[in-house]
Specification:
Blueprint lengths: L1 H26 L4 H59 L21 H24 L9 H24 L4 H25 L5 H31 L3 H19 L1
Helix pairs in contact: 1-3, 1-4, 1-5, 2-3, 2-4, 2-6, 2-7, 3-4, 3-5, 3-6, 4-5
Length: 256
C-alpha cells in the first residue's frame, strides 16, 4: 500500500503543475517567449524520458514484441482521441502564452465549451504520464525523477494557457480551479491505478503498458507541445529542447 500511496503522491505532484499554471494565469501575464521556452525544455526532457527511461525499461521487461506493439498502439490511441478533442476546441490547449490567440476560433475566448474541451485534452495528455509514474515504482524501485520533472514542466504552460482561455470565456475562479484541481487529483489516481493494477503482473504486460504510455507521450509532444513551443521561440526552440534533453540524460545516468 505504501507503494500505491507514493505513486499517487508523485502523480499528484506532476498534476499539481496544472493548478500552478492556472494560478499564474489568473493573477499575472507572462511573456509568451518565457512560457514557450519552458515548454521547449519540457519537450526535450520528455523525449529523453521516453528514449532512456520508458523504452529501455519496456524492452528490458518484455523484449521487442511487447515494446513495439505497445509503442505503436499508444500513439494510435492518443492520436485518435486527440483528433476528437481538438475538433471540439482543444487544439491549442498547450498554447504557449497566457492569453489565447483571438485569431483562433478554438482558443477558448468567449466559448466555455472550448475551455471544457481543453480540460478534457489536458486529462488525455496527463493519463499516460501519470500511469508511467506509478509503474516506475513497481519492484521496489524509486520513482523516475526525470519523468516527474518532465511531466511537471509540460503541465505548467498547459494549465496557464488553458486557464487564461477559460477566464476570457467568463468562467469563474471557482470553476477554473475546480477543473484543474480535479485533473490534478485524477493524475494522482491514475498513478495509483498504474501501480496497483500492474503490481505482480506479467512482465510483458508491464512492458506493453509502459510502451503504450511512451508512444502516447511522444505523439502528444509532436502534435501539441513542440508546435506551440516553436511558434514563439522560433529558431531557438531546438537549442532549448536539446538543453532539456541533455539535462534529463545526465540526471538519468547519475540516478542510475
Amino acid at each position: 500500500m505504501n507503494g500505491v500511496l507514493a505513486a499517487g503522491l508523485w502523480g499528484l505532484l506532476g498534476g499539481s503543475a496544472l493548478v500552478l499554471g492556472a494560478g499564474i494565469a489568473w493573477v499575472a501575464t507572462l511573456p509568451q517567449r518565457l512560457i514557450a521556452g519552458i515548454m521547449a525544455i519540457g519537450s526535450g526532457v520528455l523525449i529523453s524520458a521516453v528514449a532512456f527511461d520508458l523504452m529501455d525499461e519496456a524492452f528490458a521487461r518484455g523484449g521487442f514484441d511487447s515494446t513495439a506493439a505497445g509503442f505503436l498502439g499508444g500513439a494510435v490511441v492518443y492520436t485518435a482521441a486527440n483528433i476528437v478533442v481538438s475538433r471540439r476546441g482543444a487544439r491549442h490547449r498547450k498554447r504557449s502564452g497566457s492569453n489565447p490567440d483571438e485569431s483562433q476560433p478554438d482558443a477558448g475566448k468567449g466559448d466555455g465549451g472550448s475551455g471544457t474541451a481543453i480540460a478534457i485534452g489536458a486529462l488525455l495528455d496527463g493519463i499516460p504520464e501519470s500511469v508511467v509514474i506509478g509503474v516506475s515504482l513497481l519492484g521496489g524501485g524509486g520513482v523516475s525523477f526525470v519523468t516527474v520533472a518532465a511531466v511537471f514542466l509540460s503541465n505548467v504552460p498547459e494549465g496557464l494557457s488553458s486557464a487564461a482561455g477559460m477566464k476570457a470565456a467568463g468562467r469563474s475562479a471557482r470553476y477554473v480551479f475546480g477543473v484543474w484541481i480535479g485533473i490534478a487529483l485524477a493524475s494522482g489516481i491514475a498513478a495509483m491505478a498504474g501501480n496497483w493494477l500492474l503490481a505482480g503482473a506479467d512482465p510483458d504486460l508491464i512492458a506493453g503498458t509502459t510502451a503504450v504510455a511512451a508512444g502516447a507521450i511522444l505523439a502528444m509532444l509532436v502534435d501539441t507541445m513542440i508546435p506551440e513551443a516553436t511558434e514563439s521561440t522560433h529558431e531557438y526552440s531546438g537549442l532549448i529542447a536539446v538543453t532539456g534533453f541533455l539535462l534529463a540524460f545526465i540526471l538519468s545516468k547519475l540516478g542510475g
